[in-house]
Amino acid sequence: MMLFDKLIVFVFAVVVAAVPFEVDDRFGHIAERATYYSSSWNDGKGKVVYKNGPEGQYSVTWSGNKGNFVVGKGWNPGGSRIVAFNGTFAPNGNAYLCVYGWTTSPLVEYYIIENYGSHAPWDNPEQKSKGNVTVDGSTYTLWTKMRINKPSIQGTATFPQFWSVRDADDLRSGGSVDTGAHFKAWADNGLKLGRQNYMIVAVEGQDSNGTASVNVGVAP
């Protein structure tokens, strides 16, 4: 989740839904629709409405200028692939549009940032620079940060975050992401992933408000 210290309880449920659903409480809901895996989580501190549309489509609206959430659609497990996406991303404050995922053994939380709001993801004194990679039509800076006794998909744990952050002059809300190229760049710089868990094209917000609509699997 975001680079802010929070006490978060992760509660996950498996849901197969025939219609879009809303999430505005502190529970995470996970569903599969068509060939895409859908994940939504929030800490219950703000208003978040996530609508799980057909195929790779979803939308989210958030308000209240407080709280943290992550929603999106993708795959479980994730892995090396070309991820096409297209959409709109209109945050007012701190938010990300990214490829987001987890691995286990070792436990790692990772981000490939394609667009962001008011806060540059690398602007944190605890982030450590690990070089850069040119891929997907831009240069991405590579970063890592340790999370100590923080919430994860395995409960409270200590784990690293890996980040690829697209150049600020090339931020975008649609395109294709070669996740394998980012994974290789991380590995080449000493950042080793484990076994892939879920991987989604995600919108994440922190103490902000805004709207986004994303279609995974469809290029601009």
Structure described in brief:
With 220 residues, this protein is mainly beta. The protein has one domain (14-216): Sandwich (Jelly Rolls), CATH 2.60.120.180.
Low-confidence stretches: 3-34
N-to-C series of helices and strands: EEEEEEEEEEEEHE
| Biggest pleated sheet | 13 strands, mixed
- Please tell me how large the radius of gyration is: 16 Å
What does this structure look like?
The chain is mainly beta and 220 residues long. Helices cover 5% and strands 57% of the residues. GO terms for molecular function: endo-1,4-beta-xylanase activity. Pfam families: Glyco_hydro_11. Pathway: Glycan degradation; xylan degradation. It catalyses: Endohydrolysis of (1->4)-beta-D-xylosidic linkages in xylans.
Reconstruct the topology from this structure.
Blueprint: E1 14-15, E2 29-33, E3 36-42, E4 47-52, E5 57-63, E6 68-75, E7 82-104, E8 108-116, E9 128-135, E10 138-150, E11 157-166, E12 174-178, H1 179-188, E13 195-216
Parallel strand pairs: 1-2, 8-11
Antiparallel strand pairs: 2-3, 3-6, 4-5, 5-13, 6-13, 7-8, 7-12, 7-13, 9-10, 10-11
Features:
single chain, 220 residues, Jelly Rolls, 13-stranded mixed β-sheet, 1 helix
